[in-house]
Amino acid sequence: MSTENEVGPAPAASESPAPSVTDAAEPQTAQLPAVPPTPPIAPPAPPVAPAVPSSAPVPAAVATAEPPTPPAYGPPAAPAAPAAPAAFGAEAPPAQPAYGAPAPLPASPGGPEGPVWGAPVPGAPAPAPKKSGNGGLVAAVLVAALLAGGVGGGVGYWAADRNSDNASSSTTVTTSGSSKDLSRASTSVAAIAKKALPSVVTIEATGSSESGTGTGFVFDKQGHILTNNHVVAPAADGGKLTATFSDGKKYTAEVVGRASGYDVAVIKLKGISADKLTPLALGDSDATAVGDATIAIGAPFGLSGTVTTGIVSAMHRPVASSDGTGSSASYMSAIQTDASINPGNSGGPLLNGQGAVIGIDSAIQSTGSSDSTTQSGSIGLGFAIPINQAKRVAQDLIKTGQPVYPVIGVSVDSSYTGEGAKISTGTDAITSGGPAAAAGLQAGDIITKFDDAVIDSSPTLIAEIWQHEPGEKVTLTYTRSGQSHTVSLTLGERKGDSTS
Known about the structure:
By secondary structure, the protein is an alpha+beta fold. It has six helices and 21 strands.
């Protein structure tokens, strides 16, 4: 089961606490639906066993005796049409815009002298494949390694044969310095990765019916690890949790608290001393801007310690995702990045150019099949939970074991397909004595703005509300009988996840 959630259409808000405004793994096979206004989004999932995490598709088993059929060479096949997002709301996401000429690549964090992000490293040996729950991936990696070895051997033999005829004509040049002499700026990707990797763990969650692999990172010296709820969900009810560091040391862990609506969870390591832990520095996600450099670290398809880079491609992207079964919905106003995020990256840190955490990788948009036996990969649309929100949720979980959700006290109409979020027309649409009731909102009103954010759907409204804290004062704009009105209200709270 993979820990990456695939995003599809935003889940419809219902009168249950999650969709209600009163109250949004490689190995896991859950797929994430995307939010209505924007293309659906799916959270990245870790390599999985037969089960599905909070919204990541499960990779197909590749335990066959015959090697994969080699690709046919010739003109490239036409790209497959993107798969329709999983139904997760009343509205399907709009078609993706066509992009024009590529923008120039951003400068490396280390400056002009720093390495170009994404540039292949010459002569880098292919990593030895590691056994994981994803048999297909391991098989593919092995085949690739064998092919590389064959090509390299052939070229080497030819070169040796040619050189033996005229050894004196060799033009080989060797650098005078050793690898130890290489110096890298502290803000280079290599330096940031070297510093962060020891604080990132690969999480394996095993339950009675499913298992999955995801990522997490050290939150404090007390042994708390921050990750996604859909990563640890398989082991939540009496299952087994382990966390493995980059040096190979593995520790058992227990769940401290889970917040399915936020898709955040905290686990605690057993038998480890504080001097062995180095918490990652947390940045300020509110100060993050489109174009900022990003670095994602995780275990895509079980390949621990994988580092990818990109930029922040959008901010405040409304994303609704689920665990693939539709039983647990989560909502976020996400940081969008083109850094490669795949099943297994879920729960891992998204760092900025200074090496500080600005988000938790949680979902991906994919064009892959919705078939639960296959696992989709990155197409450059990844989504992370802003760290400012995740930090607040984590602190609540560590303190009380329960999440706290800000609410306005209304239920929204999931069948409404117009602009905005429509308050349901039922008798319980407005919570008696709640914030909305006190502000004068009525059943059937259509909320169009939350503070300065334009509301185009119910999931967008929920994601915006959940970025705040109970007790904060906000401004709502709504329409009633064609007339626009603006009111102020103070957010209420709901403790714990809904069980309805």
